[in-house]
């Protein structure tokens, strides 16, 4: 009886340990993001203009097919601290996009076929979304809703490193015991590991005008730089203002210190 009891307890303990190990093996918490250094990091960091322009190209040719960028207007591409496009370049980029034209002379917003009446965008227009509405976006993406990327770097913990890791995190084989859900893809940097977005970047998926090799890592670096700018287009001005305020405070503290010494010396003479 005692031998049987010991065997039962030992078996139960072994099964419990095995179950714990199995649970640990398929723990689907997101993997810590990769360590990546970006030019805009730190108090002295600035946006790399070439990277911003390349990143815009990646967004336009790859990400923009599913993800909107609703807070950025075409005129912002010419702003100080941004990608550095000329006004002529920004106008050409805007003219290639179509936006709703609004009511025509007859008050119509749709043509005879039920399609929205559009016009070429101008500098004042914001980037048009890739889908007419949320329902259309979900229908085209197996029920998943691609998030707007305007503030994605600010909206995610370790935003720049997280997005970079996510974009470069496809291609690994899932661990034993983990099942990739239908219409999902394995990515260990995404919470739950099942992500609705298929691998968006491929080697040489874009052709950079400046001849930079379009590796997956380079494309990810560039589009993250562009999205960081989209999330905070006034970053460089903010840092410059911060330094100016810091210099003023140091100078002001020096003046106060000298004034205090002078007043103290005058009282000491009395």
Structure report:
This protein is 44% helix and 4% strand. It is mainly alpha-helical and 270 residues long. The protein has a domain of 129 residues: Cytochrome Bc1 Complex, Chain D, domain 2. The strands form 2 sheets. It has a two-stranded antiparallel ribbon with strand order 1-2. Strand 3 and strand 4 form a beta hairpin. Helix 2 packs across helix 7. About 7% of the residues have low confidence.
A few lines on this structure:
With 270 residues, the protein is mainly alpha-helical.
What labels would you give this structure?
extended, 8 helices, two-stranded antiparallel ribbon, about 270 residues, two-stranded antiparallel sheet, about 45% helix
Secondary structure: elements and pairs:
Layout: H1 2-25, H2 49-61, H3 87-95, E1 98-100, E2 118-120, H4 134-140, H5 152-155, H6 159-168, E3 185-186, E4 194-195, H7 216-231, H8 235-269
Antiparallel strand pairs: 1-2, 3-4
Number of helices: 8
Q: Name the beta content range.
A: under 5%
Total count of strands: 4
- CATH homologous superfamily heading of the domain at 23-68 and 151-233: Cytochrome c-like domain
CATH architectural label of the domain at 23-68 and 151-233: Orthogonal Bundle
- The CATH class of the domain at 23-68 and 151-233, by name, is Mainly Alpha
Looking at the structure, the CATH topology of the domain at 23-68 and 151-233 is Cytochrome Bc1 Complex, Chain D, domain 2
- Please give the radius of gyration in angstroms: 28 Å
Q: Main sheet, how many strands, which sense, barrel?
A: 2 strands, antiparallel
Helix content: 40-55%
The strand order across the widest sheet is: 1-2
Mean pLDDT value: 88
Low-confidence stretches: 7-24
Order of helices and strands: HHHEEHHHEEHH
Which structural class best describes the helix and strand composition?
Answer: mainly alpha
**N- to C-terminal separation?**
101 Å
